[in-house]
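Regression test attached.
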Amino acid sequence: MKLQDVGEFGLIELLRAKLQPVDQSVVVGIGDDAAVLSYDAAMNVLLTTDMLVEGIHFREDTIDFQSLGWKSMAASISDIAAMGGIPKHAVISLAIPPSYEILKLEQLYEGIAEIGRLHHTCIIGGDITKTNGPLVISVTLTGQTEQGQALLRSGAQVGDLVFVTNCIGGSAAGLACLQSDRRTLLTPDQQIKLLHFHQRPQPQVQAGRILAGSGFCSSCNDISDGLASELHEIASASGVSIRIEESRLPIDSSVRNFARIDGSDPVNWALYGGEDYQLTGTINPLGYASVLTEFQLHGLEMSIVGRVVQGTGVLLERLSGETIPLAASGYNHFTT
Amino acid sequence: MKLQDVGEFGLIELLRAKLQPVDQSVVVGIGDDAAVLSYDAAMNVLLTTDMLVEGIHFREDTIDFQSLGWKSMAASISDIAAMGGIPKHAVISLAIPPSYEILKLEQLYEGIAEIGRLHHTCIIGGDITKTNGPLVISVTLTGQTEQGQALLRSGAQVGDLVFVTNCIGGSAAGLACLQSDRRTLLTPDQQIKLLHFHQRPQPQVQAGRILAGSGFCSSCNDISDGLASELHEIASASGVSIRIEESRLPIDSSVRNFARIDGSDPVNWALYGGEDYQLTGTINPLGYASVLTEFQLHGLEMSIVGRVVQGTGVLLERLSGETIPLAASGYNHFTT
């Protein structure tokens, strides 16, 4: 049996079965954005890790190394944000081809340091080795949440509202813009805005903190693999169905504009593009108004895109009024 | 400038310069076996990470995948042991060629789980991705020590004794045995003993705990790159010189025996072989007897191999009585 036969998630299940049960210090283990660990009475420690491979996750023709450093850290910070946590300390390992240009690695670290400063996140160690293959970047990040406040995937309740922070689909639009000759039809400002969505995503740490502190947020994921995939994870972990409306998806006008120029579907970018690093989840209707007010006080946006209902899976109400099942497949490394 | 021009340690310095200063939550950052983090008043959190690349760190013809899993975790557990800590929670990421045999990865995880059970260390997450290059394994492990008790590299004092736990040189002997036709001159039991030194190293968590609890251990490293390299790190970090005697190096009789058969130098294996995952460090002479007693109560061995003196660098007194400077070079990925 080869890896390509079972896929990424199939392999995770196979390997997970090999491991021993965890002890009581593990509040949440494998299967959420980050693990939740109980090290002392007041605060939980969060732990998340991501691996990026050149040629698979990034290519030099669509991202510069400083942005790559930013984005590598952003993905991990976003996992902590999705738990409602504060990012704290990172270790970064690199496997590097011997003939690699050092300047690129220095630029990578400039981007890592740039977003680290913004989020008060320290790089405190790592490992460097050579490889005969492509550049591999591994980022592991700790975080903290108040005891019992971590936002999980599994708490969505029938009747809860489904939210999305700020806008989605921008990262896919930025990538399409980079790869399309039609980008010259945009002004430089419009191009830069789309590029930033793709290359400099903003992890939503403050939104996660507000949601966790409210006591009304019943589930949360960050949008790394696309909204459809994230909502499927929440529905499955919570044992509920989620129903969203196409008309309510928060898609920036710059994204809609370029989709029109490019002949692309902005809703497809929003549902399946991924790498937006916004948060999605569910919130008790009783808490919605107060959370929205606090979001607005901090210059954050939140859209209600649907509702939690009984059943399984995720449904999409199209603009036409037709309701269809929404496939999960955002991005699965081994089967797409 | 290429990576091969500056080497692993040169690159680390270049990249480190890009990072912001750490905040007061970081007790020890880059530059020891593990980082030390202050998350609450009683206990410090330790964090260490290692990356292994197929063809660089391991090859299928010298290690089976279950042993590889064991050894990958052993390296990280050993880093926590070298800080005097208790290993706690691990995240493991894999970059996998699509045509890789799943059975190998399952065996890898069996080995990871096996040593994890022994040390009560839970695997709580990870990331899996494909790669067009070799298999890459990244292990990140947390640990805990009592506040202020972490064993650093930087505390060696003139007059302290230099210790080594158990025996060294066994991993290099085991590798040589695997690669030598002369291994058939050993009994099966002798071969298995040497193979175990190489494939199933035993991280010295209990030794580290005794040393940290004693209050007399002034510095500590685990022997991953060879005794010479580890002692150079301690001498440099502490601003002292270390003088060791060849006649005192603890080398198992099975290692000496195979060295004779193989025409190899067992002292070379002990000083430069690495991957023994024993501990070396310095101890105040006032505490030596009590620590030794506690070691013996737990079936552990400790040898005094030398002494801390004024000056810089590491000196070796040969059997002949001649004293020579001991080069640091154990294993540097980019320059050997």
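Expected vs. actual: identical. The first helix of chain A runs from residue 3 to 16.
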